[in-house]
Description:
By secondary structure, the protein is mainly alpha-helical. The chain has one domain. The protein is built from 6 helices and no strands.
Amino acid sequence: xxxxxxxxxxxxxxxxxxxxxxxxxxxxxxxxxxxxxxxxxxxxxxxxxxxxxxxxxxxxxxxxxxxxxxxxxxxxxxxxxxxxxxxxxxxxxxxxxxxxxxxxxxxxxxxxxxxxxx
Length: 118
């Protein structure tokens, strides 16, 4: 699935399409820079989504506090249940480095598109 396809599906969901970056979050992205935000995304995906077993799956991604968290909810990459439902990512199996990279790229593309919005 390419970005346009993924975002078309996301926009069809009233819930997923309700997420956006606030002015404060956009300022944070500008202050830290996209490289730092991407590093944070990699860390969050590796620590919170990649393990095969996640004791608090479904609750591991906060609703606010970081632009990547918003992106995770907007892109249905917030928990293994959503990854399975939206992208057919198998649950209870550790995410491969390639899967992690695809998730990070999707999150970063969502953030890039949000940064272009006024």
